[in-house]
Specification:
- This protein is an all-alpha fold.
- 64% of the residues lie in helices and 3% in strands.
- Strand 1 (110-112) and strand 2 (115-116) form a beta hairpin.
- The chain starts with a helix and ends in a 21-residue tail after the last helix.
Length: 179
């Protein structure tokens, strides 16, 4: 459409094409993320081998620990996207694909590179678990470093104290006591 046609449409109150496009969906909330993971945990309860249940629970615990901290990643963070996508897409799709198969087929029939569907699912869950653990460790390290830096700031601001980072030499060490 020409610019003149666009002006005429606006004068007549017609929406521009950009105004017709739906707004992008809001990212899921922490509650929605946790609900998605809990739903997968319920789906596997009593229906899959213990190896799958253990892996799903491990992934769920990591996501539960991380969900309240997702805002620390920043807008557009690749790590936050991975956590959210794992909870709302990757995990449910992997488990769902396995659950749609007959148990006998899934657990005994080789489907890819000498592996059964159960083995393939366990590999996928292991990959998701390791990835989430790495992300969680990185965030925790950043939080720990921030805590140490804050302690150093306080020690510099207010002088020697128990906040100073020094080797532990026993009671009174570093404070001039016991001399």
């Amino acid at each position: 459409m020409s610019w003149f046609g666009d002006v005429v449409d606006r004068l007549r109150g017609r929406p521009r094409p950009a105004e017709l496009a739906p707004a992008p969906a809001a990212p899921p909330t922490s509650a929605e993320i946790l609900e998605s993971v809990r739903s997968v945990e319920q789906q596997v309860a009593g229906k899959v081998p213990a190896a799958v249940v253990a892996r799903v629970h491990g992934i769920a615990r990591t996501i539960e620990d991380m969900a309240p901290r997702l805002d620390r990643f920043g807008v557009g963070s690749r790590q936050a996207h991975t956590v959210v996508a794992t909870a709302t897409s990757y995990l449910p799709e992997a488990v769902g694909g396995y659950l749609r198969l007959p148990r006998e087929f899934a657990d005994r029939r080789v489907v890819s590179h000498g592996k059964t569907s159960l083995m393939v699912l366990c590999d996928q869950l292991d990959l998701l678990g390791v990835t989430l653990d790495k992300i969680s460790d990185a965030v925790s390290r950043e939080d720990a470093q921030a805590l140490v830096a804050h302690g150093q700031f306080l020690a510099e601001k207010f002088g020697e104290s128990a906040l100073a980072i020094t080797p532990d030499l026993g009671p009174g060490a570093g404070r001039g006591e016991g001399r």
